[in-house]
Design goal:
This protein is mainly α. The protein is built from five helices and no strands. The longest helix has 30 residues.
Length: 137
Amino acid sequence: MKKLASILVLVFSVTFATQAQKNRKQERPQLSVKQHTNLAIKRMTLALDLSEKQQNRIKPIIAKKMAERKALIEKRKKARKEKKRPTANQIYAVKSKMLDNQIATRNSMKEILNKEQFEKFEKMQKKETEENNFSFG
């Protein structure tokens, strides 16, 4: 009987904690593309010691990246609500476009940053990719 009571308490506590986390995520305010861009530029300025000129040249690149990311997230949310799963061709197209964008961003950054800054940028990108790469597909 004690084991059953313990198991029930555990199940209820896990369920309650899960529901609390779901509610907390929904309440969090969303930043605008401009706000995300400004924060990214400031982080990069601190990490790479960017000049004012470099910041101004990088800002449109980051803004475009953030806008595309936000559009993709909104598209995913809409599909999730409609319970639509992407086809293999759609997944391929999205991943291919994402890689093309990464290549273009890398090439643009290579022109803007000096050699030392670019090496740091590459390390930052690699670390970010490793932290955010949870999919196996």
